[in-house]
Every structure is written in structure tokens, then in C-alpha cells.
Automatic annotation (TrEMBL):
Its EC number is 3.2.1.86. This is 6-phospho-beta-glucosidase. It comes from Gleimia hominis. It is an enzyme of class 3 (hydrolase). Keywords: Glycosidase, Hydrolase, Manganese, Metal-binding, NAD.
Amino acid sequence: MILTILGGGGFRVPLVYQAILKDTSDERVTELRLYDIDESRLQTIYRVLTELNETADYHPRIVATTDLVEAIAGADFIFSAIRVGGTQGRALDEVISLKHGVIGQETVGAGGISYALRGIPEVVAIALQVKKHAPNAWVINFTNPAGIMSEVMQRYIPGRIVGICDSPVGLARRILTALQRAQLLPQDLPTNVPGNKRVHVEYAGLNHLGWITKLLVDGQDVIPVLLQRPDLIESFEEGRLFGANLVQSLGSVPNEYLHYYYYPRENLQTDQKSDHTRGRYLEEQQNRFYTQAESTETGVFNLWERTRLEREQTYMATNREATGNFERDTQDLESGGYDKIALAIMHAIANDVPAELILNVANQGVIKELDDSAVVEIPCRVDGRGIHLPETAHLPDHARGLVVNAKYVERETILAALDHSRADAILALAHHPLVDSFNVATQLLDDLVDHFEALQPLGKHDV
Ligand code: G6P
Ligand code: MN
């Protein structure tokens, strides 16, 4: 089986590779193709993987290439994990947004819109090449903003693209662990999600904008048990972030990225005070890693692992500072997110072993507030025949307006990028709940156009 990773020089590729090395199934990866436009980063990651090979009984053949067609031709699975504009672009999105008094996070608000506007043309180009050179491949999209990018790809290669995110299953796992620690669940219950046959998660929304509404363990919903115990709510990451009051009022447990929506003022203040945005921090950290790796002969994996741990420890640090100021649980520093989900999809399809996974797929009537082609994040069943949707996924009342509005913003962003439409870009920015003035939307867009060449087709106010 041939697997291609677009963005193969990316920092998180070794995580996926470690999961590949653990796979002992019949239909496992025999050839891994890493594609990247940055030759030097590609070589560094290639070296990390080669070091990992020494620890494994079996490993696939690895090909590293900067030629897209060579990378995808005849592939069975393609992981798309690109970052258009690099971490430098991410940092710029944040800094420019903050200058205009709005949050610039990479997937939420103005930052997410800017990042999507830059990325959409590249993602379309990739989808067209996949259609031509890898007509039978399944594309698994990791590229953020994952909801928007999956919806874009779906227009070009419908039925063979699925978007993934690890935050919903991470949330489910943390709730289960909290209940188990409090002796409210059997000690022998595995808390891993996905791949847990005793657990069913009911989750609905869009990427980074969803809620767990029910969490069934052996058929029994445990969310009501959690909601009665503020101490338990505040014993796991999301509960601490949001606070027991909010979670109890909602009656469902929000994805961690909703922190930006429920606490915009606190997040903005903390971000503005902080001397480093997340993007700037990662830009420096990654530059350091890739530079050091070049001058290191052996032990590149150890260097990578140390850097990864530090990255996990500081994940959502400003959000935690804005409401609560706490350290992450050590178990949340372990991998077990993206890599596991991506491998689980491949495994379910290639070996025809059914699995339940929370995925970004075209709605097809599942969430009644949205039309059929809208990409939504919902629990699906995957097997050798493909992806099967649930009959329905229920949005809590408080979530309906937010989700319908966010889908409108996503679609205006897509229209803006595809049609080079300034009007649609402004409609997208102005309707985002985290952009609080039409003037801000207009000035922000002008500033983004000045800083990013890829955004120039959107034009300026005075031309
Ligand atoms: C979570 C999110 C991803 C994001 C990742 C890394 O897993 O679901 O969408 O890419 O965190 O975030 P970071 O800030 O470390 O790049
Ligand atoms: Mn995500």
C-alpha cells in the first residue's frame, strides 16, 4: 500500500510514522512517499524516520521528493498536511489581527480566514492533480483550517476526501479518564478513543466548533453524571478552561477551540499582553530544530522528541493563562491524536475492519440546520466500503446560530479565494463573531493584502 504525505517535511510527520511502524495488519503501508517544497526540511524529517527504522522489525520503503506528480501517482492514501506561508505566515496572521484588536488564531476568526485565503488556491491545485494522477486515492486532510480545506477539496474530489482533527476524541478521552479517576466508571474500561468498542461519542458541529452532547459507555450516557459534579468538570483540560458554570449551563461539553468564542475578551487581552504569539513561538522553535538537526549527525530523533514535548506542554498556553492558569496533564503530552485517527481510517478501509471515528465529511442531511454539501464534523462508521454517516446529529439550541453563521463565514471565505472577490472576503471577516466592526474587517483585509502576496488578487480599498 502506498501512502503519500504532502507536507512531508513537516514537524509532525514522525508522529504518523511511529504509528505506521506499529501497524502489523495485512494491508499496511509498504511505501511511504514524503512530498515537500522545502528540500532541506524534507531531508531532516527523512533522517528522523530513518533513525526510527532502526528500532522497528519491519519498515516501509521511504521516498522523499519535491515533485508532486511523482509523489501522488498511483497512491492509495494521501495525507494532506501543508502550511501555506509556513509558520512565519501563521505568526503574521496573528500579529496583524492583534494590531486591529481581534484574535488571530490559525483556525478561528480573522487569522483562520487569512490562512484559508492563502491556502485555498494551493489546495485546489493539489485536488486537481490528485484527480488526474491518483484517481483511486483516498485523501485525508489535516491541513488547517481543516473544515474549510475539506469542503474545498470535496468540491473537486467528492466521496474520496475526509478531514480529521484530534480535538473531539481528545475531549472524549479526557472526560472518560476524569470519570474513571473518580471511580464513576469501571477501572478496566479502556479510555482510548478511537478504537474503543465500548464507547460511542455523540458529537456535532464544524471543525474546532463542536460539542459532545452524549458520551455512551456500554450504552449508558455519562454526560449527565459529569454535569452534576463541578469538581469533576474542573479536573480535566477543557473543563478547567471553560469552568464548571459554563459547561453546566450549556449541558454539553465544548471543543477546546470554543474557548475563543466563550471568552473572546480574556483571550484578546492575554494575547495582546503576551510577548509571543503561538505562531511566533513555533516559528522560532521549529527554525531552531531544523537548523540544529542539520548540524547533528546522529540523535536527530531525540532532538525531535524533546522539541515535540515542549510544543505539547505549551499548547494553548495563552488560553490557559486567560482563564485558569494551569499546566497540562502529563497524559495529554503523549501523542495519540492525529496519527491514530489517520491510521485508523486507513486500517478500516484497507483491511475492512469497521471503526467509529469523528470526521469532517459532507453533511448529507445529518445536521438539519445545514445543507447537504456543507462539511460537518460528526461521528461516522468507516469500513472497506467507505464512510457511513449517522442518520442524524443533534446540535444543542445554543450552538445552532453559531454553527450556521460559521458555515456562512467559511463559504464566503471559499468564494473570496476562488473568485478573487474582495466583497466576499469582507463579508466573511465582518460576519465572524470575533471581528467586531465592519471597519475593522475592511482595514484588516487591506493590511493582509499588503503583507501577503497570495492575497493581492483581493485588491485594496482605494483601488
Ligand atoms: C490540535 C488541533 C490542530 C492543531 C494542533 C497543533 O491538535 O486540533 O488543528 O494543528 O493542535 O496546534 P499547535 O498550536 O501546536 O500548532
Ligand atoms: Mn484540529
